[in-house]
Each structure stands twice: as C-alpha cells, then as structure tokens.
C-alpha cells in the first residue's frame, strides 16, 4: 500500500464510522423523534442529549461517540500502520470527526460538533499530551461555562504539542482538526459579546448528579 493510499484509507474508514450518530439512535429510542427536534440546538451530541433527556442518555451518547472514534483509530492503525506508522491513528480520528460533523445521510448543518471524537483522537494518538489538552479544554469549559469555548480550545491546545513532539505532519493535521472544531463552534462563539450564547454549568451538573446518586444509595 502506498503512503498516500494508506492516508486516504484511514480517512475513509474514519468517515464511515463517524457517520454512526449515537445521539440519533438514543434520541429516537427514547422520544421517537430525530435529534434535530431535541432542545433548542438540535445538535446530535452528548451535551444536548444530556440537557434534555438526562445524565445517563448523555453518557450513553458519549460512550458511543468515543467508541466509534476508537474503532476508527484502531482499524486505521491495523490497516495502514505498516505503511505510514503511528500517524495513521490521527488520520483515522480526523476521518471519524469529519463523519460525525458532516454525515452523508443527514442534511448539511445537522451533524455534530466533533468534540468527543476530537478529544479521543488526540488522546489515542498521544496519551500524555492528549490528556493535557483534554484537561485544558475541560478547565476552560468549567471556568467560562461556554461549551463552545471549551470545544474550540481543547484541540487547539494540542497543536503546539503535536508540532513539538511529533513533527510537521502531525502538527498540520492537529491544526486542521482544531480549525474544524473552531468552525463548528464559531456560530455560538460569535454570539458571546451580545450575551445570547447559552452558558452551561457542566461542573455544577456533575456535582448535582453525584449528590443525587449518593442520596439514592442511602
């Protein structure tokens, strides 16, 4: 397999798996309606499902999105790793994010924002620096209460690490992933100055769920 063919294969495998929209499955199962009719955003992602259907359905969506990205990265490494090495993991993750954001079977604009697939892709590619980037994005989300800011910062914070420790190709791919996430979050980000961007207390919601769980156990 040629290096170019291997890279194309990784993107194709990732894109195909990324088209599996867990949020659509969960939402239709619980409500009988498409995810586009859920909440004010209609976004097929964990945050929208959790906000409108509860903590457990949201976690189920997250698990599904992480699972499809993980499978895309694994298959990409198994199929193309002998030709292009470890970078195949990142190509598979980008493909999965593209499939999640722009699924072929949904109308344009109905795809997700790719936060879960992006954060898992960079973690699988680089467990240490991917984890650092995920923590940075999480802390920014907790501090600002803007999911759009955290979602854009998370992959962007990985770009310097990619260039520094994995070379030019990894850095460019990480920058493309960060640009993709920023593009998907820009419609929300640009409403922040006007005060119309929705804020979500993610940390508060987690603490509330934990307290409720402890009460139920008692």
Q: How would you explain this protein's 3D organization?
A:
With 218 residues, the chain is an all-alpha fold. It has ten helices and no strands. α1 (3-18) runs parallel beside α5 (87-101) and α2 (22-31) packs antiparallel against α4.
Throw out a few tags for this protein.
218 residues; mainly alpha; 10 helices; 0% strand
User: How is the main sheet built?
Assistant: none
Question: Uncertain regions: pLDDT < 50 for 5+ in a row?
Answer: none
Span from first to last CA? 59 Å
Q: Strand portion, in percent?
A: under 5%
Structural class given helices, strands, pairing? mainly alpha
Helix content: over 70%
Radius of gyration (CA) equals 17 Å
How many E strands? 0
Helix run count: 10
Mean of pLDDT: 88
In N-to-C order, the SSE pattern is HHHHHHHHHH
> What form results from the Cα inertia axes?
globular
Concise account of the structure shown:
The chain is mostly helical and 218 residues long.
Outline the secondary-structure elements:
Layout: H1 3-18, H2 22-31, H3 46-53, H4 55-84, H5 87-101, H6 115-125, H7 127-144, H8 147-166, H9 168-189, H10 202-217
Helix pairs in contact: 1-4, 1-5, 2-4, 3-4, 4-5, 4-6, 5-6, 5-9, 6-7, 6-8, 7-8, 8-9
């Amino acid at each position: 397999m040629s290096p170019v063919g291997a890279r194309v294969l990784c993107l194709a495998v990732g894109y195909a798996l990324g088209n599996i929209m867990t949020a659509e499955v969960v939402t239709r199962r619980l409500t009988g309606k498409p995810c586009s009719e859920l909440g004010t955003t209609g976004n097929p992602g964990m945050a929208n499902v959790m906000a409108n259907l509860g903590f457990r359905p949201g976690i189920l969506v997250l698990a599904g999105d992480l699972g499809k990205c993980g499978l895309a990265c694994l298959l990409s490494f198994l199929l193309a790793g002998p030709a292009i090495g470890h970078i195949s993991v990142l190509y598979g993750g980008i493909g999965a994010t593209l499939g999640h954001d722009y699924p072929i079977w949904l109308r344009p604009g109905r795809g997700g924002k790719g936060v879960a697939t992006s954060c898992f892709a960079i973690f699988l590619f680089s467990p240490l620096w991917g984890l650092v980037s995920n923590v940075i994005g999480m802390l920014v989300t907790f501090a600002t209460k803007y999911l759009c800011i955290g979602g854009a910062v998370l992959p962007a914070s990985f770009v310097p690490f990619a260039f520094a420790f994995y070379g030019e190709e990894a850095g460019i791919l990480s920058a493309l992933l960060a640009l993709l996430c920023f593009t998907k979050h820009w419609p929300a980000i640009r409403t922040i100055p006007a005060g119309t961007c929705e804020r979500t207390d993610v940390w508060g919601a987690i603490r509330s769920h934990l307290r409720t769980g402890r009460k139920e156990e008692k």
